[in-house]
Amino acid sequence: ELKNTSGLLYPPEAPELQIRKMADLCFLVQHYELAYSCYHTAKKDFLNDQAMLYAAGALEMAAVSAFLQPGAPRPYPAHYMETAIQTYRDICKNMVLAERCVLLSAEILKSQSKYSEAAALLIRLTSEDSDLRSALLLEQAAHCFINMKSPMVRKFAFHMILAGHRFSKAGQKKHALRCYCQAMQVYKGKGWSLAEDHINFTIGRQSFTLRQLDNAVSAFRHILINDSKQPPAQQGAFLREYLYVYKNVTQLSPDSPLPQLPLPYINSSATRVFFGHDRRPAEGEKQAATHVSLDQEYDSESSQQWKELEEQVVSVINKGILPSNFQPTQFCLNRYSDNSRFPLAVVEEPITVEVSFRNPLKVPLLLTDLSLLWKFQPKDFNAKHDGETKELGTCDDDMIGTEAIAEFLINSEETKVARLKLFPHQTGELHILGVVYNLGTVQGAVTLDGIDPSIGLQTGKFVSNGLSVRGRQDLEIQGPRLNNTKEEKTSIKYGPDRRLDPIITEEMPLLEVFFINFPTGLLCGEIRKAYVEFVNVSKCPLTALKVVSKHPEFFTFGGNTAVLTPLSPSASENCSAYKTVVTDPTSVRTALLSSASSVDFGVGTGGQPEVIHVPLPDAVLLPGASVQLPMWLRGPDEEGVHEINFLFYYESIKRHSKMCHRVLRHTAVICTSRSLHIRATVCRSNALEDEEGRGDNMLVFVDVENINTSETGVKEFHIVQVSSNSKHWKLQKSVNISEDKGICLYHQQDGKSSFYLTR
């Protein structure tokens, strides 16, 4: 006996069951039209008898029979299936039969390209009572969306994420990972950063659970390198998960090469390389030569001027010919400099690399034990045989000394530069590959109650949370795009950038220059005495010291009669280029002795540089030795601010194959103001006779005008002495200058004086 849902008993030969058996037999022999009629008839009888389970089965089979009829004489009755599903689920409470009916109906609808109806049918059966069934239905619904005539890609991805979530709740980790990975293909690169972060985070978690550590690292890496819009707390959680996973990876394979870390960002093109020691600060009255430092901004015009000065002095040294292998000295290499050649560095002199880091996260990053990664090939440039290449020798301090920064904190969304140094101890070829460091987070790095944690992190000691991983980042610099030949113009080709591949040459002398009592302001035409101190701080003697400038009329080291060993620079009598001496004790006549005459100053020829020899004792400066030389300065004739460039050139006594000379730069800034305007006229005086009675003497009339208009400058001038620079004439006496007071000139005043001029 069979009992329906209403509790009625069906006798074995009930007509409804006989019709159902007949329908099943017709269905089995593929007589679908007759089967449909029998199922349809049985359905009515079951409904009349309230046998809902049988009625739902008859509806289901009637719909299938209608679908399988050849030629499709009638449309597929989808409402039959919907009624059967509703009956199984709501009345009979049989979810297994309902699920079977849904899957069957969905396949029928998909075969008729009715993907939208199939997806809606599948989604309606999802519920909270079975995660596995809901995950299966959501995944099938997602495939319906992607197979439409106009694919609904975003709905596919969304339902795949829902399916992955339900698979994860059901404990099916592999299926969950597969669904999230398929959804990631849609969201990736579309700018939906929050969705990407969620998917990558889940992929990383599931991969780590399944011990797919490489996939887990890759997923967490993508979270960190994208411009995340997550709040700081969430970003901190992502970073900690990443560090934890990475630490597990490195512990499993401790001998593997250092991994590439995603944080912080490195702007490789902004990398700058400086060769040489840092500039010394000013000491008292001593002012060090400005030279070049990393703190100076690059100026292409100034760089070209220094190059022209160096070319001028090198051509003068080589008798007017610039050598074909001449390479201008470059102390600081950056994105704007010419990096097509291998730069030259000197052994035992530091190489400073400035690396620009950027923290894209809203939480601070702590880098510890930060240093450069390099490769070195020892090479003796005077020998035939070269040494073996030392790969990644960050610990081989015998060849290259490496300076490490113990702690380097980068605050949230901050761009910060780190200056890392290498100390070459041997000649050869150096290749700077990248940086190596420990990446970690700072304890309590999340902002709480509106208080920025970085305020408390400026003390120099940072508390790490103990979770850090060691890794590396490579410095990959792309050279300038080539655009010279036709082939280069029609294709995209880039030239080399060799700023990170210096050649370490033999030891060279190193000069430091200090200026003592060097003025910052002068009157136009004023002559002032200063001192220059030359110090050889290397272990090699230097020679052939010269200075070149485009303003040779501004300075001189004096004539051949100048004293090379001056008195103390602080002595007041040395502040003038002139010294007054009494020539005859019995008379009041005086003569002026000058150690720098007008012929010693260079002649400005429209900006053409002039090479001036520096008179060193014995023409050599020994290691550790220093010498002070007097320098007389003459204020430029035009008022205003003047920048005057000095390029000091020197060589080593021993000739080297790679580096022939070295240079030192200095820029002096002089502010000049107006002083006196002088006009002199001379006429022959037959009435005046000299001591021998000859009458070919002269009268000199001098008009002096105070043209200084600055209210803050010199308000008045006192003319107390006039002297002659002629070798054939001397000033005998003044006609109208008072011996006691002289001439006093105020603003815009002029004065006249006349003198006797005798042979």
Give the strand tally.
Answer: 33
State the low-pLDDT regions, or none: 1-10, 445-460, 560-574, 585-592
* Class computed from helices, strands and strand pairing: alpha+beta
In the CATH hierarchy, what is the architecture of the largest domain at level 2? Alpha Horseshoe
CATH class category name of the largest domain: Mainly Alpha
Main sheet characteristics: 6 strands, antiparallel
How much of the sequence lies in strands comes to 25-35%
Full CATH superfamily name of the largest domain: Tetratricopeptide repeat domain
Quickly list its features:
single chain, 759 residues, Serine Threonine Protein Phosphatase 5, Tetratricopeptide repeat, Immunoglobulin-like, 4 domains, 6-stranded antiparallel sheet, 6-stranded mixed sheet, 14 helices, elongated, disordered N terminus, Trafficking protein particle complex subunit 8, TPR-like_helical_dom_sf, Ig_TPPC8_1st, Ig_TPPC8_2nd
Explain how this protein is built.
The chain is of the alpha+beta class. The protein has 14 helices and 33 strands. The strands form eight sheets. Strands 3, 4, 6, 8, 10 and 12 form a six-stranded antiparallel sheet that branches. Strands 7, 9, 11, 13, 14 and 15 form a six-stranded mixed sheet that branches. A hairpin with a 5-residue loop joins strand 1 and strand 2 (9-10). Helix 5 runs antiparallel to helix 6. Pfam families: Ig_TPPC8_1st (PF24545), Ig_TPPC8_2nd (PF24544), Ig_TPPC8_3rd (PF24546), TRAPPC-Trs85 (PF12739). Residues 295-523 form the TPPC8 first Ig-like domain.
